[in-house]
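REVIEWER CHECKLIST
Item 1: Sequence provided? yes
Item 2: Single chain? yes
Item 3: Sequence as submitted:
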Amino acid sequence: MKKRIITLLTDFGTKDGYIGAVKGVIKRINPQAEIVDITHDIDSFDVLGASFALNNFYRYFPKGTIHLAVVDPGVGSQRQPMLIKTKDFFFVGPDNGIFSFTYEREDLANIVVISNKKYFLAELSSTFQARDIFAPVAAYLSLGVKTDEFGLPAKECMKFIIPRPESKGKSLKGQIIHIDRFGNLITNFPAGLLEKKKIAEIRVGKRRIKGISLSYFEIKETCSEGSESKGLGALIGSSGFLELAVNKGSAQNLLKAKIGDPARINFK
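Item 4: Structure as written out by the authors:
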C-alpha cells in the first residue's frame, strides 16, 4: 500500500520550484510514495489542454494509481477541491473541468469535496493549494486513508462541453482541440468514427489532404501533391484521434492554426 504511485500533471514548469514543494509535502507524509511526473509543461491556465493530456496518459499506470492534476486559474476562489475514485484510479485536483475527458471514460465509484482540514497543511496559502491541500491529500491516500475521510460526497464534477464532430451528409465537421509541442494538430475526430469509411479528403482552411497515413514517416509520400499542401498529412495519433502533421515539421506553423479552428472530412 505504501508504495502506491502518485502522478503529477501541472502547468508549474520547473523554473520556480513549485513542483519541488509539492513533491516535498508528499514525501514528508509518505517517504515511500513513488512519484511520477506526467508533465509540468501544460500551457499556463490551459485547463482543457490539461484535461486532454491527462486523458491520454493516466490509464497506462497500474490500478490504484493516484493522479494529482493541477492547472488552477481559479485558485483561492469558490471552486471546490475534489477527490474522485473510479474503479481503477484516484484523481485529485480542482473542480474546474480538469477531469472532463476522464470523467466520461471512467466508471465512477465516489466523488468527494475535500474539506477535512485534518489532511491539509497546518498553514494554508490562498494561492498554492497544490502544495497545501492536494499534495497532502494524495499522500494520505497513498497511505490507505479512505476517500470518505476527506470530506462529504458530491454528485458530480464540473465538466467542459467537449466538442463533438457533426455529421452533415457525406461530411463530418469538427475542430482542432489540441496542439502538441511538435506542432501536430489533434482534431476531435475519434478513430472509431472513421473505421470502414472511405475518405475523399480532409480539409483545414484551404488545405486539402488525400487519405490517412500510417505514420509520420509516410506523410511526405501520401499527402496531396498540391504545392500548398505538400508535406502536410493526416494520421491517427497515439491519442486515438485524427491529427494533422508535417513530417519533421510543424503543421501549426504551416497552417497558422490554433485550437478551435474548424476541420472537415469529406467521404466518398
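Item 5: Key structural point noted by reviewer: The first helix runs from residue 18 to 29.
Item 6: Recommendation: ____
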